[in-house]
Amino acid sequence: MPKKIIWTEGQDTQIRRLRTEGASWDVIALTLGLARWTVIERGRVIGVARPPANAVATLDESDRLPLPAGHSGSWDVITRGTVLEGVPFRIPQTIR
Question: What domain of life (predicted)?
Answer without folding.
Answer: Bacteria
